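Two folds, back to back.
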Amino acid sequence: MVEQKTILVTACGSSIGLEVLRSLHQSQAPIRVVGTEVSWWGKQIAQPYCQTVEVIPRGDSPEYLTALNSVIDKYNAELVFVNTEPELEALVEHRDAFQVELSCPGKFGLQACLSKQVLHDRLAGYNLTAGTVVVNDRQDLQQALDTLGSPVWLRCAEGPRGRGSIVVEHVDDGVFWMDYWRRRDAADDVWLAHEYLPGRNLNWTSIWKQGELVAAACGERLKYFLSQVAVSGVTGNVSHCRLVDSSAVTPIASQAVRLADPHPHGIYAVDLREDSQGNARVTEINGRQAFRPLLYTQGGINFSDLFLQSMLFEDTVAAEPATVTIGLEMVRGMDFEPLFRQPATGEQL
């Protein structure tokens, strides 16, 4: 009999964390699932999918790492799914000291996932990204507009959910925007101006084990919640998405991962955007599941289950590619459970 393993899911009542839990709920592996949350309501939401949920400080709290390690020790967790950016930022400097399997990359790779500037530097010269210029002031922004063309995509080098993103056509608008964010957050962010990419908004999620690609699939973001009140139209929280063919994206995204992390191990979610000619350009890499885990699961590739199977229950890297239901759509709402539909047949799952 295979020994039962304990899996810890952080931020388990969050948007991504809850979908990781629901995906694990479909696993046939001998596991028990425990969770961490920062609020009573997050705990209550996640409770049906966990043996227990511990309330701990937020990822940006000085007490977070101590609390996380305490939960790992208390339940003898053997694998941890880390699901939010603040948590990754808290553990990056200590990442390689963990004695349990974490879903995120090692320290070197995770640094590129947390800083778009670090990522851009590692990918420079390989024609994988949009044209990018570091912007600090009016002169830099004007040079970016002159070099990359108008408009440009302006955003903070660090932070999740499209932090600070805006489409800029005129230098005055961009200068005001950067000054506003610096005053608002009392921080001197590094800003990046990118060549504007008008095409499909893609995600390529992948699992890697000791430098080898285990599994990957691709999805497309179609709509965001509250996009009409976001100046960039991007809020980071997808309301409508679908699975798409990954064959053209995999060579690009996998090369980006290997450049960002020479020995990839963990979950890497690569975001890409197509240019006006339909060429996919890498915009960022996330060291966590950053699209919709449940859509991938419903479409035939359960990354949460595949990750724990690969790390805890298999001696060799999985060789059989998953069969993904291309075209499967997911519609999310604030007041209802996710809906899934196959447009080709009209079948609802």
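---
second:
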Amino acid sequence: MGGKMLAEVLQRQKGMTTSWTVAGLGLAVTGVGKLVGGHLGAGIMGFGLAHVALGMLDMLRPTVRH
């Protein structure tokens, strides 16, 4: 029983790590877009902000049990 619960916790942490990575990379891309500026920079910032939003939303998604 304890091993099954531990596996579920580890699986959830793995998913959370991926979500944080996507959101963190999105923040980095957003910063690059801010540095570039202009229309191109605005597009890059939008791309980065979309990844931040998707990473945060992914954290709210329930885990899938197999």
